[in-house]
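This section describes the prediction task in plain terms. A model, or a person checking by hand, is given the sequence of a single protein chain and must write out its three-dimensional structure as a string of tokens. No templates, partner chains or ligands are provided. The sample shown here is typical of the held-out split.
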Amino acid sequence: MRTPTTLAAIAIAASAARAENPKNLLFVGNSFTGSGGGVHLLVQDIATAAGHPTPYVFGRVIGGQTLEWHLATGTYVIDSEIPAGQHWDAVVLQEYSTRPTSHPTDGNVPAFLAAAEGWYQTVLDHSPAAEAVLFETWARAPGNSVYPTYWPGPSFMQSELHDNYNLCRDLLGALGTAEVAPVGDAFELGSFDLSLYGGDLYHASNRGALLMSLVIYGTIYDDTTTSDIDLTDIASGLGLGQTDIDFATDLADRILVPSPAGASLFLALGLVAPRRRRQQWRGFPETRSRGHRPAESRRGSRLSTPPA
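The expected answer:
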């Protein structure tokens, strides 16, 4: 007789055995999402390097804008920027960096929550199985002028970002599946090292862009070990080397811990969590779209726009 545990084990084994389909990923954000020439493009490259089918990605990346602004002006991309007949697997939402905080002029937590909910619901109307991935942003670097005027230091700002992105996750979880990609927490784990920031102590450096892309990749693909991915070419394109790779993957792997529920299930079944394949995907290149690259999200472009 097949018990529920046995059936669960069979289902997991069957799922692992099935060929993986390339994901369709929609990114919505501002110049923070534009880091490193486009976080969506870096996530695409990391997924490919990790042995997954190359995902189709689209980035609605416009500097200085909030999710509320994107919601009012840009939801048409949900329908227009995906191949006909296909659905989004995930939407990655990144808010203006001080909106999910108590900042006296730029902070507006209710507006952040409402806009994220509006985006996710609109995506679900098109793609009912899509997941919401909340791109948690990072606190300003030590030495930025927001300290001590608005917060005593980076950890205080990060605490607000952490709490409110997780609050948003709980809100969106009532609609479907929602996760936080803990990018800002990874910056904090790295003690807000100045090498993660640009010269303005605000936006990310290319080293920071690599870290955030690894965290978002790991969140989307449930991959908690990024240190075994060959990132040499990706890092080279960012002007980075092995020391940068080691620094970024160490932080990413430490912040990307398995969910307690998932870990408990595999332990209860006596199984080892499935690992991604490291061999290159042998798909059909002519059907693997790399995704549209509008002017605002083209690789290598710099967004000389208002702050994120």
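For orientation: Residues 154-173 form the longest helix (20 residues).
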